[in-house]
Amino acid sequence: VLAEQTQALAADDFAPDPAPVRGMTLGLRDIAAARAVRLVVIGQHKADALAQAVHGEVGTSRPLSALRHHANLTVVADAAAVSRLSPEIWSLA
Known about the structure:
Elements: H1 4-14, H2 28-32, E1 37-41, H3 47-55, E2 73-77
Parallel strand pairs: 1-2
């Protein structure tokens, strides 16, 4: 069951339909084994985590950082989420 905060954050994305109340968690091993990974990062509250994953050391304290080495990773993020990244590594489409 998703936390109430997660449901509230998702509400706008799913409007007018109700936000999901359940989700699934996959381990990084399963995600890393996928042929393709699409990561969607939305909101200022995710900016630090994304910046640490991109600019920080790869390690267990930053599980998302392990995806930097995936052969087919696409990151889709809004301007707020990329606000702490070095401008030369992202572009707005």
